[in-house]
Amino acid sequence: MLVSNAGIPASGPLTSFSLDQIDNAISVNLRAGIMLARLLVPAMVERGAGHIVFMASMSGHLPAPKNSLYNAGKFGLRGFAQALRMELRGAGVGVSLVSPTYVSEAGMWAEGGGRAPAIFQVTPVDVADAVVKAIKGNRLEVMVAKLPVRAAARLQGLAPVVGESILSRAVEHGDEVVERQRVKR
Questions:
Q1: Structural domain contains residue 66
Q2: 179 pLDDT more than 50
Q3: 45 lies in which domain range?
Q4: CATH of residue 51
Q5: pLDDT tens, 146-158?
Q6: How many domains does the chain have?
Q7: Sign of torsion, CA 29 24 115 107?
Q8: Is residue 158 part of a domain?
Q9: Reduced to 3 states, what is the DSSP secondary structure of residue 64?
């Protein structure tokens, strides 16, 4: 079994990243999972058993301004995992994605001191439960997010232009909320 959980923050305007920083973000957020899978899949196929879980992100569903580089890695990881799952169908090897929003209390978001609005927060236990659910049920993807966020992701997938409009307004509102919190401090 492989639970691929490589990831580094890569938020900010695209023009704020050097070429080396872009290469590093893509290398960790996308390439590392691909390379690990490439190394482990042959033995899993030979045994006719195994499971790979890629820790993706709701950022692989919901694009956001100043998040294009991180979004690219997570959208790419989702596409890779979905295609690999199809490639390994019938080989006894499962492939799943677990896509959380911001994880409170642990991980790169919490370690960086970030605080997201409550609607975007999930706990480490929520994520662990999703990993178990993905493996036991051989689920393609488990979104670890509150219902409105999962609904927004579904809408974005079905109607990207409508989703973009709604997401843009939500981001603007979120920026206003963050600014109000900053002023109160």
A1: yes
A2: no
A3: 2-146
A4: 3.40.50.720
A5: 888 888 888 888 8
A6: 1
A7: positive
A8: no
A9: coil
70/16 Cα distance (integer angstroms)? 13
Contacts for 134 with CB less than 8 Å, ≥ 6 apart = 53, 96, 97, 98, 141, 142
Burial (0-12, 13-18, 19+ Cβ within 10 Å), 36: middle
Tell me if 178 is assigned to some domain.
no
Radius of gyration over every alpha carbon of the chain, rounded to an integer in angstroms: 17
Q: What is the average pLDDT score of the chain? A: 87
Q: Does the pLDDT at position 162 exceed 80?
A: no
Q: Helix or strand or coil: residue 99?
A: strand
Is 102 an annotated catalytic residue?
no
Asked whether residue 81 carries a pLDDT value surpassing 70, the answer given is yes
Catalytic residue among 50, 59, 70, 152: 70
- Rounded to whole angstroms, the Cα distance separating 149 from 143 reads 9
pLDDT for position 174 = 56
Largest CA distance in the chain: 59
E strands, 36-181, where? 50-55, 93-100, 102-103, 121-122, 141-144
**Per this entry, what is the length of the chain?**
185
Residue 163 in domain? no
**88-125 residue pLDDT tens:** 999 999 999 999 988 887 666 666 666 666 778 899 99
The rounded Cα 112 to chain-centroid distance in angstroms is 17
Find out whether 167 and 125 touch, Cβ atoms under 8 Å: no
